[in-house]
Amino acid sequence: MSFSVNHSGKEPKVVLSMLFCLLGLIACASIAQTVAAQTLEGNWVIDKAEKEMRPSQEFLGASVVFNADNSFSIQRLQRTPWRGTYSLDPESGTIDLTFRGRNLTPPVDGTVWEGIYRFNSDGSLEINTAGGHDRRPLEFMTGYDLTMLTLTRTN
């Protein structure tokens, strides 16, 4: 195979086609790595928290762990941790947090917080939940019974 330039113009088209294919493969590989990196599983800390349109001190600085078996725990500062299970639908961006165990403070066993989630370009995670009275939020905002959390990965 010769790489000399033929003035008929056919070889440069073939080379350009091969170059575009190579660039496409590189782009697909980087998308797959980005999707794989965007998983809830791991350790997080809550950097920002707003509940009912006010800062929520009970969440700020809390450690959150999402496990591979779909269990989670929220370790709040100087408070009893909350534990439960979570379920995700990546296509719709929805999340449900079901609290389990004998919590000394609400949410009680069986309480489900319906929410939405998204990953930001800086790697942070936003979760917007309704704490029981409102339905699942449709937008990332706070309001009556809505809680907006911004989490940063620690691992």
- Under the CATH scheme, which architecture of the largest domain would be assigned? Beta Barrel
In DSSP terms, counting alpha (H) and pi (I) runs of 4 or more, how many helices?
1
Mean pLDDT: 78
Number of strand elements = 9
Percent helix:
10-25%
CATH topology name of the largest domain:
Lipocalin
- Reading off the top of the CATH hierarchy, the class of the largest domain is best stated as Mainly Beta
Strand order of the largest sheet: 1-3-4-5-6-7-8-9
Characterize the biggest β-sheet. Answer: 8 strands, antiparallel, barrel
Shape: globular
Indicate the topology.
Blueprint: H1 10-37, E1 42-51, E2 54-55, E3 63-66, E4 71-75, E5 82-89, E6 94-100, E7 112-119, E8 125-130, E9 146-153
Antiparallel strand pairs: 1-2, 1-3, 1-9, 3-4, 4-5, 5-6, 6-7, 7-8, 8-9
Structure at a glance:
By secondary structure, the protein is α+β, with helices and mostly antiparallel strands.
Keywords:
8-stranded antiparallel barrel; Lipocalin; 155 residues; globular; 37% strand
